[in-house]
Amino acid sequence: xxxxxxxxxxxxxxxxxxxxxxxxxRKGTTFHRPQSTLNHTVLCIIVQNHLCRWDCASDVKQxxxxxxxxxxxxxxxxxxxxTGAKVYFVHEGYQGLVDxxxxxxxxxxxxVSMMLHLGGTVIGSARCMDxxxxxxxxxxxxxxxxxGITNLCVIGGDGSLTGANQFRSEWSELLADLTxxxxxxxxxxxxxxxxxxxxxxxxxxxxxxxxxxxxxxxSALHRIIEVVDAxxxxxxxxxxxxxxxVMGRHCGYLALVTALACGADWVFIPEMPPEENWEExxxxxxxxxxxxxxxxxxxxxxxxxxxxxxxxxxxxxVKNGSRMGVDAVMALLEATxxxxxxxxxxxxxxxxxxxxxxxxxxxxxxxISIFFFFVVHSNINIAIINVGAPCAxxxxxxxxAxxxxxxxxxxxxxxxxxxxxxxxxxxxxxxWAQVGGWTGKGGSNLGTKRHLPGRNIEQISLNxxxxxxxxxxxxxxxxxxxxxxxxxxxxxxxxxxxxxxxVIPATVSNNVPGSDFSIGADTALNTIxxxxxxxxxxxxxxxxxxxxxxxxxxxxxxxxxQFLYNxxxxxxxxxxxxxxxVLGHMQQGGTPTPFDRNFGTKMGSKSVLWLTDKLKECYxxxxxxxxxxxxxxxxxxxKRSLVFQPLASLKDDTDFEHRIPKTEWWLKLRPILKILxxxxxxxxxxxxxxxxxxxxxxxxxxxxxxM
Length: 707
Prior knowledge:
Structural class: alpha/beta
Cofactor: Mg(2+)
Main location: cytoplasm
Pfam families: PFK
CATH class of the largest domain: Alpha Beta
Largest sheet: 8 strands, mixed
Number of strands: 27
CATH topology of the largest domain: Rossmann fold
Strand content: 15-25%
Mean pLDDT: 79
GO molecular function: 6-phosphofructokinase activity; AMP binding; ATP binding; fructose-6-phosphate binding; identical protein binding; metal ion binding; monosaccharide binding
Low-confidence stretches: 1-40, 51-64, 364-374, 700-707
Keywords: Cytoplasm, Glycolysis, Kinase, Magnesium, Metal-binding, Transferase
């Protein structure tokens, strides 16, 4: 049985009592690019992320740096320069900070060009034993003081950030020792009286508390999923079981999310040791899957998996048994001597600041919430329908809804070809085995159309009665939202439509009111980014530099893509050439990204659990009757949570003419884009100042239900 190993800068602020204003203007909403005379702030960036794994073949430790660090470095450098700061790189991590000299170099705007697509870190990272000793930290402090640096941006894991916090906590003591030893003057010590630190977490294991995803995790998931997708066809052809080991010595995130994304049969993670005699249970599970007609079995194993006796579980055992940059700068700009060291984390679509040591103390390996399911029979029928243009992740949402619904005891019904299929009676039961392997498939396996209920409302209501449908899950884009509104409005005339409904946003356009993110948007962005990066890489191999222009398909009826291409081609003769790519429908299908697979899984699962509770509320006198506004909702991600919002309440926030929400949070990203592209004056709202938050532990229990 085959198995695969898948491992595969500093700020100086003016004294607090200084009357010199920071170049970052907070009056109004305009960033004025500072003049060189205001360069009184110094920023230094350290990357200390030198994660090692043993290469069994060569018996040599191999370093791994989290992909995405260069994007954080670039954003931090350019934001720092834009606000008038001098920006320094610290090469080779803490070792460069200790050694000083040429390891601490001035960064320029151009020095971070063309690095977004590069893996690892361009400023290097190295293991540093010297920084663990006080004499090493004394040398590091001396180097910083001599350059007037009192602010550090550290990108690394929990060990690196813990070291940074220790450095900060003993800063005053280090200054005193340096002054006493004659290494620095009293005036230098006074100018550097405090040290501000902000951290960004770089770890492919996603093993840091306080952030939904660390830098590098998404890229690691992409690599793993690529391997899983690549072997699926072979495995199905030969009816094999594949055991994949992924990184995760103490944290099982990669393994668990990979299992969700690929529909694995079994997963071993450090946080949840399997019960005794797991080998026997695993074999029974695999046999049962084969008896259901499955030709493929996938087992995911985290490298740190162990049994309840704390003995490692290896691939051989399983085989024998069966297997953040801009916000960091703002945090430093707003820091005071009393501000504790913080880490910039991702929560939903928001960058938040959390006390560094709170995260480190909780990190370590908080067990993942355990979900218990008890299968019962409910006599409830839930129909699932896809509406609008297809997109990656739709099938993952359907699969999750079907399987969670079956676990809840419901009968799940598949509606083919959108609202047309609901009107024409294209409705049939869908069972557990039918959705096997759907997570990694693009498009819509149920079929989808853009047509709204419209004149078919009466026929739809009749089929709801005919097929005894008790609730409806509508997965799609703006058409799904409009169709849901039409059904709710028609409740006044057709009592059959008084059933609970939920709309799950799924569209590459990300334009459904009530949700900051839609299923499919991440895959679309990934497709756009990869094609543009590949294009630019080829062009940058020449001596002529190139630029990139992105245009929305309906941005302007006169300034079309062809017009812009012709304009730049004509004006660039003899200076640069021009190429045009129209991505079109490529963004809709294709293989879903790990994010969309798991986002769809979460949305599908949560929708069924919500409907189960709502059906209990609406069950009266032996029948379902739901006519309240909160019985028909959009399930969306709002900032940091998945929330249900009544369809009717979202009408006021909808621009029906342009098919978009009136409030679009992502427009706030445009000023950041302009800043990083070196615009001289940028309109940007800086009235909201981020506050330090605290780590909150969460646990959850999900059970099956009965009605």
